[in-house]
Request: fold
Amino acid sequence: MSEDSRQLLEVTDLSSSFDTEAGELVAVDDVDFKVDRGRTLGIVGESGCGKSVSALSLIRLLPQPMGKVRSGEVWFDGRDLQKVDRDEMHEIRGNDISMIFQEPMTALNPVHTIGRQLTEAIHLHQDVSPEEALEQAIEMLKRVRIPAPEIRVGEYPHQLSGGMRQRVMIAMALINRPKLLIADEPTTALDVTVQAQILALIDELQQEMGMAVILITHDLGVIAENCDDVVVMYGGRVVEWTSTRELFANPLHAYTKGLLRSIPRLDRERKTKLPTIPGNVPSLQEMPSGCRFSTRSEVEHDDESIRTRPDFKEVSPGHWVETCPYCYEG
Amino acid sequence: MKPLLKIEDLKMHFPVKGGVFLRAMGACKAVDGVSLTVNEGETVGLVGESGCGKSTLAKATARLLDPTAGRIEFEGTDITHLRRRELNPVRREMQMIFQDPAESLNPRHSVRDIVEEPLVIQKRGSRAERGKRVAELLEKVGLSESAGNRYPFEFSGGQRQRIGIARALALNPKLILCDEPVSALDVSVQSQVLNLLMELQEDFGLAYLFIAHDLAVVKHVSDRVAIMYLGKIVELAGADEIYENPKHAYTKALISAIPVADPSLDRDRRLLEGDVPSPIDPPQGCAFGHRMGHPKWEASVGMDLALREVSPGHWVQPCPCCTDES
Ligand SMILES: Nc1ncnc2c1ncn2[C@@H]1O[C@H](COP(=O)(O)OP(=O)(O)OP(=O)(O)O)[C@@H](O)[C@H]1O
Ligand SMILES: Nc1ncnc2c1ncn2[C@@H]1O[C@H](COP(=O)(O)OP(=O)(O)OP(=O)(O)O)[C@@H](O)[C@H]1O
Ligand SMILES: [Mg+2]
Ligand SMILES: [Mg+2]
Reply:
């Protein structure tokens, strides 16, 4: 039972797809993960592997009408988010789960001032006067290190720098003190000093109120310093899932190993060719149904492994990996 | 080394209307006296605090904005005041990769049209030739040819960024202003794109102004690196030199804040203190010293803070609070 009360989110067999001219494309294919209260789960993976779509599926914000969740359960705080009605979902999104979107400009309304967007979010969930809401908005902008917040509340998104827009979104996401924060590349537009401050602020709120965080990022340094556990995705599936320490010390899947080898380093000789994983991710139409990394792997796969999906197994306590015989040496 | 781009004392100020009544309240001095040269075939990295004016500097250089003051010279021609039509030949040789793809890709155009657009505007090749070029470019940035038929919203963030990169490469320009070109990419695709940019530089002598927050990436691709703080460049040096021998306190703070991909290190990060300064009503003298509340900051007020060369090719702002070089 104590296990259960710690757990905030459990995603099982989540699959999502898009209707396109080329037919139905499955972008997320049977994904599983869990997040405990107060903990941080990192999600990493190749560009286009389904991180954002997974996140949007959880909170039922896939673009309509093309996007849909095909199957799966999303248990959050005792409720299956795929089953609750729209009003309830709307309320959960405002009160309990917040999302920081990857591209601020797609999430901010260009015709409303920053102040208006923030205070609207506050009014939706708190019964406060307009002055009080504005005060809270300014306070929050200050906490995310926006300079001169009293002036910025009167400005429009296009007047802000990329990193300021990102921080405005972070402020919007945190203002109602959610139980779960989904942060999709929250610091890509921030310099490392501001990034460190924002991550410290998120950490602070985690300590203060036990907020759980799903942190989607390409920066493996950020993962190493901020996440308890990590999910590695490739081609719409989870290929590895374990604690952060274990992942860096003992990566098991060939894709994870390739990823860790590609981390930019300060001690590399300048202007030399950087290590990469050869080839490109196939488009969703061309994805093999079996081991999806087969088209990239240095080891040639047999037909069976290209056709049949490998099992996702717990190979040592708490360390899960997709057990394709060519990508994982068991 | 031949200078390709010469920026001299460039200023870009935006009017600020603020408060509830949208009164004019002065100016936002986004770029406030920047001088910088990019030589042919060279990469100059540009790093700085979020909001310090990097994108504005790039947009003003590409003449998407009209600079408030200063001078921009490209291939020996003063382009500071050229009008739209006159800028056409400049656009052929100077392209930009934008920070926020959502801001720069027309959602109603297919990816093929977006990448082809500069070729159409510059009347390059026949339809068939352009089609071939687009397919080649998409492949180079790691997108499949079929991506051409789809629309920007059908792509992930990183895929969209690569559409912008393909478009910038279409005309084989001499200079690309890259604003966070790889920050939305996973480390492997990032390395592929960086390898591509370095290869093109080797083969065609392309030059880059390379804006990024990942200091390891900047170091790897750059010949020289400029560090910007609140509208001004505070340090400029060779890429190895600036990391091995940083002089300005802000450069040092940046380097110490780089996250390290090793969870067994339990680093206790010292966060920067003080309020991030605002380009609206900036402090006098050295902005970083002011922010840190440095006891010697006052001495920097009224000083000439123009960069000074402290060793060959290593330039730094000579303020008493942030460097030992004054
Ligand atoms: N509206 C859409 N219509 C069709 N396909 C889509 C749509 N949105 C996303 N996709 C596809 O779904 C896949 C997963 O996209 P997603 O945005 O989740 O990637 P991601 O892992 O977040 O990548 P990145 O790191 O680049 O942000 C991609 O192949 C993308 O092309
Ligand atoms: N069109 C505009 N109108 C008014 N102010 C602007 C405009 N564009 C930028 N600014 C202001 O100029 C300053 C510098 O912005 P800029 O986008 O150049 O920063 P940046 O260094 O690129 O930051 P980031 O790393 O966050 O992208 C900011 O204070 C911003 O609010
Ligand atoms: Mg994404
Ligand atoms: Mg910018």
About this structure: The domain at 22-264+273-322 of chain A is CATH 3.40.50.300 (Rossmann fold). The first helix of chain A runs from residue 2 to 6. The longest strand of chain A covers residues 7-20.
